[in-house]
Amino acid sequence: QVRLVESGGGLVQPGGSLRLSCVASKSIFSFNAMGWYRQVPGKQRESVAVITSGGITSYADSVKGRFTISRDNAKNTLYLQMNSLKPEDTAVYYCNGYSDSTYWGSGTQVTVSS
Q1: Are 2 and 61 in contact (CB under 8 A)?
Q2: Coil vs helix vs strand at 28
Q3: Tens digit of pLDDT for each residue in 62-99?
Q4: Could you give the CA distance from residue 48 to residue 35 in angstroms, rounded to a whole number?
């Protein structure tokens, strides 16, 4: 059973930064792609950033230039560096990995508020 465990969420003021981490229970080399998604109550889960096994990245328009997805293969860890945070970034952030199946973490809450 593959596990993805997120951490790094919390409360931050507008304009602040957070770095989310997602540790996988198996080598992240084995995933075709990994990504970060977010969801607010009453809305569908949306893609924030994705990185392929080849290192190609893509971002939602709303976070381009502010968020950066990266990975540390040696640590089996996926990151999301979030800068210039806005109140509308408030959500539960989920780590996702796709290989033979789709795997999800349990999420970490990010709240941007003064």
Answers
A1: no
A2: helix
A3: 999 999 999 999 999 999 999 999 999 999 999 999 99
A4: 7
